[in-house]
Amino acid sequence: MTPWILGLTGGIGSGKSAAAACFDALGIHTVDADHAARWVVEPGRPALQAIVDRFGNEVLQEDGQLNRAALRTRIFSDAEERRWLESLLHPLIGAEIRQHLRQATSPYAILVSPLLIESGQYRMTQRVLVIDTPEEEQIRRTMQRDQVAEDQVKAILQVQAAREKRLQHAHDVLVNDRDLHWLQQQVERLHQQYLRFKGGQP
């Protein structure tokens, strides 16, 4: 039987990676959209060559890997270049995600994506779980984890889908404002529910 797909998302510092790790520990196949975004631009892949043809060798590191910081600088202030890059990468990332999801043998599989809603990747899923955290807690965790300034975290929050928009798409919401042990218990509870679902529906 083909596993149904759960989309797992949440804002920066919400704990979506920790929640995904809990599902993974329960034997559920997880695919991370961020990893897929890195795979499609590895050396030797056509997308990397297309990026170099467009922006030149300055977007490469000495070892031939994509220099993400240099590319970000090039597209950050140029909306047209950013759209070109998105139109190149989004279909490839989608194909990569689908390929990895097809390898799942668990009763359901999970697509973990910070931009699940904004990128339209939620259309690949039958159900959406949002890890939700009060904004002040997101800021505190991210500053602590990444050693970055508060205004930088707030800038990232601005780019990600507004919390309300994420919650509109949610079938399930897990408010992650306690410790890891509590999060594990909540994931276990949802997991037991999901095992009984057919195609993502009770």
Automatic annotation (TrEMBL):
<dbReference type="InterPro" id="IPR001977">
    <property type="entry name" value="Depp_CoAkinase"/>
</dbReference>
<comment type="similarity">
    <text>Belongs to the CoaE family.</text>
</comment>
<dbReference type="GO" id="GO:0005737">
    <property type="term" value="C:cytoplasm"/>
</dbReference>
<keyword id="KW-0547">Nucleotide-binding</keyword>
<protein>
    <recommendedName>
        <fullName>Dephospho-CoA kinase</fullName>
        <ecNumber>2.7.1.24</ecNumber>
    </recommendedName>
</protein>
<keyword id="KW-0808">Transferase</keyword>
<comment type="pathway">
    <text>Cofactor biosynthesis; coenzyme A biosynthesis; CoA from (R)-pantothenate: step 5/5.</text>
</comment>
<dbReference type="Pfam" id="PF01121">
    <property type="entry name" value="CoaE"/>
</dbReference>
<keyword id="KW-0418">Kinase</keyword>
<keyword id="KW-0067">ATP-binding</keyword>
<dbReference type="GO" id="GO:0004140">
    <property type="term" value="F:dephospho-CoA kinase activity"/>
</dbReference>
<comment type="function">
    <text>Catalyzes the phosphorylation of the 3'-hydroxyl group of dephosphocoenzyme A to form coenzyme A.</text>
</comment>
<keyword id="KW-0963">Cytoplasm</keyword>
<dbReference type="GO" id="GO:0005524">
    <property type="term" value="F:ATP binding"/>
</dbReference>
<dbReference type="GO" id="GO:0015937">
    <property type="term" value="P:coenzyme A biosynthetic process"/>
</dbReference>
<keyword id="KW-0173">Coenzyme A biosynthesis</keyword>
<dbReference type="InterPro" id="IPR027417">
    <property type="entry name" value="P-loop_NTPase"/>
</dbReference>
<feature type="binding site">
    <location>
        <begin position="13"/>
        <end position="18"/>
    </location>
    <ligand>
        <name>ATP</name>
    </ligand>
</feature>
